[in-house]
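Subject: for your reference before the review

Hello V.,

The reviewers asked for a structural picture of the protein, and I figured it would be easier to keep everything in one thread rather than splitting it across files. Below is the amino acid sequence we used in the manuscript, unchanged from the supplementary table.
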Amino acid sequence: MRALAVEDDPRIAADVAAALDGAGFRTETCGDGEEAWFLGDTESYDLIVLDLGLPGMDGLSVLKRWRAAGCVTPVLVLTARGAWQERVEGIEAGADDYLPKPFRMEELVARARALVRRAAGHGKAVLELGALTLDTNRMAASVRGVPVPLTALEYRLLAYLVVNHERVIPPTELLEHLYGDDDAREANALEAVVARLRRKVGQGVIGTRRGFGYFIEGGAA
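And here is what came back from the structure prediction:
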């Protein structure tokens, strides 16, 4: 999963990114409202964590512009503002959830996971597709009840396919959501990860539609 953390305090931004990365996200950060608007408008994210007190353009204005432009990415708003009226204003502007500062990283991660699941139409933390079970809270997978050991990259790939199981995912989209800007984004690197994952989960779990991409068997039509 690919996340954007918009926060002008470098320490908080680093802490949020570390917490999300530890929960299976691949997180980018920015600390300016104008840059945040540009990234949210031009890049594809599964989640955006947005502070309201930003330089350049305040977070509420950024959020309104995203929604006006048709951006439907789940947005979790962070703010030091405590007035309930401002929280209502954020929700009405298009925020999907609201977390006032100070907050616990564990709560942020729990809310982030829930937002991503709900955006994809899943209400539960444990997702089951055929023989495959994925526990998004524990970041664990099993096939027919047998635990499957996964690296962080393998988990991100499997989780993205499972959460988006109703469609075939193009390789370019997987590369974008799996790797950071400084990492190699080559098709053969993705194929190597898919091959390793298939060896671990067994046959009949990850399918390929030639010329289109990858999907979880029993998911995409």
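For the response letter, the relevant points are probably these. Residues 19 and 105 are 6 Å apart (CA to CA). The radius of gyration is 18 Å.

Happy to draft the paragraph if you're swamped.

O.
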